[in-house]
Amino acid sequence: MNGHPAHDQWVIPWNAYAPSRWRHWIGAGLALYVSWRTHAQITFVGSPVDLGRVAPGQRVPLSLEFTNRGSALVVITNVERSCSCLDIQSWTRRVAAGSAGRVEGVFYVPEQVGPLEERITLQGSPGGDHLAHLDFRGRVWQPIEARPGFVSLSPASLAPTLVQIVNQTDTPVELSEPLSDQKRFRATLTALKPGWEFQLAIEPVPPFPNANVFGRIRIKISSDLMKEVLVSVFLPAPTLNRNTQSSNSTPATGTSRPAGP
Which of 40, 45, 85, 109 is deepest in the core (most CB within 10 A)? Predict the structure, then answer.
């Protein structure tokens, strides 16, 4: 009315004079921002999980908390695990924005002594095969260790093979009498330092079969960290003495020779 253009005539689109490459990057940035605001953002509390020192076969209960920090509902359809030693029993299926959930299960420590690294991965929507993951770290060690854990006996010698059993915990333990699952092995346990150091003597028991013999010596332990010590035993099949073989193939001495001409 006063000769000035209407207000909306002053409104110029933001991309009217912007170079094409600017419009591309600005548009991509806006799309990324919108996607980030509506995408699931699952984070685990206390990641990674440090198990510390754990014993072979130890049962570790798991109660793992996670939070949805995004703005969209998350539906968790599966918990992928890196090892069958991770027994996932239940988890929160639907987690609203800003809410928390849990994964419940049990970690069965593998028998292999050494560093431990495993992982679980949450799968669902939105996000597909990888909503979030949680790593487990630690070290598998033997609280009560047999040194060595494997022995090979000789049929040619009835002398016992000695194994040292050492308690590496802070609490003394009691060991049961050794039990062999093979009648060709005899085991005797002696306490060198009761509660702490023991000696296991393993010897072969004749007669020996014409085949390799495998077996285990089991010793029960009065400890919550470890229930038993296992020592694997191998007895190779006996071999024939070469001198005996050669003597059997050589004509006997002292036989009469034909008379000469």
Answer: 40
